[in-house]
Amino acid sequence: MAKGDDALARKRGRVRRKRLRSSENAVTARVAAIIASKRRRMSGKRRKCEGMCFSLPTPDDPFNDRHGKKRNGDDEWTEDTVGGGKDVSKRKKKDSNSKKQPAAKAAAKREPGSKAVTAREKDGVDYDRPSKFLVVCLNAIRDAVASGEGGSIHETGSWGVELWNCCSVASPLNVLDTSGECATREQTAWLVSTACDIVARKEKLGMVVSCPFLLYIVPSQEKAVQVRSVCKPLKSLGIHSISLHPGASIEHQISGLKSCEPEFLISTPERLLELVSLKAIDVSGVSMVVIDGLKCFMDLNVGDKLSSIRGAIVGNPQLTIFSDPSDPSVTALATKLLHGRRITRLSMNASVTSRSAFITQKMYSCPSKEQKASKVKEILEQILNNCTGKTAKVLLIAANNYEAKHISSSLKLENCTVTDDSHGNSFTICSSVGLMNVVVKDRESMSMTVVEEFETMLIVDFPPSVDEYVELLTGVARHAVEGEVHSIFCSIDGHLAKPLAGVLKSCGQVVPAFLEIFESS
């Protein structure tokens, strides 16, 4: 007699329940091991080595970042494997080769332009993100400062990560911060923690780190004490710091330098030069330099001392400068200290004044649209005369593609040579004064243009809103100390006169007379 569906279902259920009751299949192997370990502990039958199951730092992993776990490819198989013979050796070599093939394919798919990431992957370690040791340093500083003052260290993480990216690449970038007059406690914490991370990584790779590694130049004794208080919690992590200022006797500081080789040196310019002249300390091998408050040093009239310190350092150390954005007089000293090298602008302040620091804004009046071409020629000649001895790179912005082509064709003078451009929107002006490369773009293609690479911008057709103008202003010259934005203002832009004048005033720029007339009308 054939069995019904209910009988078959009951039979399958009995088989399934019997299988589940089996001790070896009731749980996974990992859970079964945990249960067995718990039973051994409760019964008192525990192996002697079971209480020592933790990983120790090794020369390959001194900070125990891997927690004792080995990466793929760490173990190299040898011929003399015990009990394995040649068959085992061949099998292990085959497995090793099979593991290397996906890695080779992944490397082949990697884009060729990712040089920064490749430079950070030396010795098989990822250098594209801050390490755990940097977080440990930040936490140590946060826990050591007074309550209520250290909680915002991690809140400034976006600024700190940008700083870390500038300092940790193979060729470190100089940084110009225009957040305020001097560095805040949070910024100092990120700076010294970044330096700790770089020192640890270099030592991890077996590189010799010179002492001092970081030179932190401060304008006063009070600032030196503040920075020293931030660095002090790092002593338990093996990073020593010393502050040098006129508040202590020079004999005491010389004896302290003899007994300690600090990784971080905090000093005022006068005391540092005095100790260098006495050969009590050598700063020629410094790798990172911080100048905290460039405007303060200028007020104290010690700009020449900063230049002397910079000249005593051999090579090109990574330089971080904090400066007041409201005083453009510091640009000459900053340019001298940076030796004209490429920089990156950073700011924790989102205001237009801070983000457009040291960028000159010039407004030109043009009565009619037909006269714009002649006005553009006049402005370009002015820019060319101001860039004597170097090649100027100018971004010219028009309203649309038609206007961009019209500007390009109208500026083909006798001293202009059109470059081989697929769209015909760039040209070079050659003269006895200098050389200038002009790139013409319309507002629609601005999203695909790297504005930050240009130090000079010429806005032929003013944007329809001041917000768009501010976006262009804060995006230009992000890798230079100084920049220029030239704008042509027509009568049809009169409704933007009042908010534009407000932007100029907030940035400390001169408001032209014609703009005041539009503003009052």
Structure description:
One of its GO terms (molecular function) is ATP binding. This is DEAD/DEAH-box helicase domain-containing protein. This protein is α/β, with parallel strands linked by helices and about 525 residues long. It has 19 helices and 14 strands. It has helices spanning about 5-20, 30-45, 85-110, 115-120, 130-145, 155-170, 185-205, 220-230, 250-260, 270-275, 295-300, 305-310, 330-340, 350-355, 370-385, 400-410, 465-475, 495-505, 515-520; strands at about 175, 215, 240-245, 265, 290, 320, 345, 360-365, 390-400, 415-420, 425-430, 435-440, 455-460, 485-490. Strands 3-4-2-5-6-1-7 form a seven-stranded parallel beta sheet. Helix 5 (about 130-145) packs antiparallel against helix 7, helix 7 (about 185-205) crosses helix 8 (about 220-230) and helix 10 (about 270-275) crosses helix 12. The longest helix is centred in the N-terminal third of the chain and has 25 residues, at about 85-110.
